[in-house]
Specification:
alpha+beta; two-stranded parallel ribbon; 8% strand
Amino acid sequence: DVRLDAAEAARNSPLRLRPRGARWMAITAGGSESAEFHRLQRELVGAWRPAGLAVTEVDSPGMHHFNVVTQLARADSPLAAAVLRGILGHSVSSH
């Protein structure tokens, strides 16, 4: 409980933010997350793509919000490949 009222929650929602200067984003919700995390992912994609951001959604089966970032340490992970594609601006295959 972070004790936000409805106005504070709306004001601080990532759905209202538009990434400044970004052209791409990789987004994932771990497969072990609740439906709420997956709903938020869908809403973020739905808000940011029309704003001109290239958004790549990455499946992360068996992961949750505490361990999903560990995929970035594995060059063969789908999340790491999506981030590299965004950084390099072209297709990067997993090995």
